[in-house]
Amino acid sequence: MSTYQLYPDTSKGPVSCVKRTDNDGSIWCIPFSEDNTDYKKYLEWVAEGNKPKAADKTD
Amino acid sequence: MSLIKVKSRGTDNVGGRRNIIINGAMQLAQRGTSSTANGYGSVDRFQILAGGADEAPTHAQVDVASGTTPYGLGFRKALKLTNGNQTSGAGAADYMGIWQHIEGQNISQSGWNTTDPNSKLTLSYWVKSSVAQTFYGRFRAFASSQYEYTYSFALSANTWTKVTTTVPGNSNFSSLVNTNAVGFYHVWQCFWGTDYTNNKTLGEWAVKDNANKSPDMTSTWYTTNDATFEITGVQLEVGDAATDFSHRTFAEELSLCQRYFYKVEGASSDRVGIGGYVVGASEARMDVVFPCAMRAAPTISGTGTAQFDGHADSADFNCSAIIIDEVPTGIVSGLGIQIATSGMTNGHSGGLRFRGSGGTLSFTAEL
Asked: CB A33 to CB B340 under 8 A?
């Protein structure tokens, strides 16, 4: 099962992507773009009542 | 007066880009030549999905043996699916197959008159199974409803066989997707369990029925440990007959594949053409220019380590920590990425340099 986590803000502010970590440890940065099939799957996962993990805290 | 004879489409051999399938000769395997990933992982544009499997199947780009008919026709690579060991047998909810998804605008603007039953698409390919069995292939068209068309093909064990099937247009296809979203696919049903099969009528378009995608399937192939299923020379073309496979150069096929998957890789100290600048000493922003506009804003992933190579080099960072800086809109010809690291000087320019073997950045915009 993949897990999702938000990214910390950058100097520009909030970022428009979400991190997915797969069972094999691979990490994917998914853009908030409705044409992106990974983002569509993320939206479906959220629609099922799931929530991504909060972003790691930065200094 | 001299006469110039013009070849008619679908009745004679027309050169050029008649093959709607991308990578039909299995030349490209940018992600790797062997994978157990459930999805894309080996041969470009071909997706392997399995549900309920006790052991994940392996999919690989393999050589076509010399002396075989496909080899004689110029095919040197095939996609090979090895089914693994399905110790609990053929479950009702199990499935295993090979897909190629096609962009809606590529099918809607292929020259096929989608709404005319007299206008045809023809699919042809070479296929070999280690187990003699009847298999099914299935098309899906994405219109206001989704429609499916299923056909069968029987294979003898370990024998390359050419399969050809022709599908008609349909009056319900006026709303067939005509964008960069999926509009059409073909799947080779290596096995589908009885949750998905029943008494499907072959050879006609019908609204998708998830409980009746094909007639019930023989499970011999699926339950034979490490049974294999290979395909190559896949061609989908407008017309009512299969023509000779339209071979493309490696570079042509790579360019077509890069609309959906682009990979940058390098060894230690390699610079790969990704330049940028430093913001505030701890954040580097870089621009990736794609060799071909991608279908959509891509998902990115990375392996290995890199640094921002500038007047003051950054500390090494994991490529998997690179994130998207700006999500592009419109034609996706490039992507802004960024990384948080240390040791840089605000305002300096530089670029990405891999710091170990096996450094990669992958950009995925698959269907």
From this structure: no
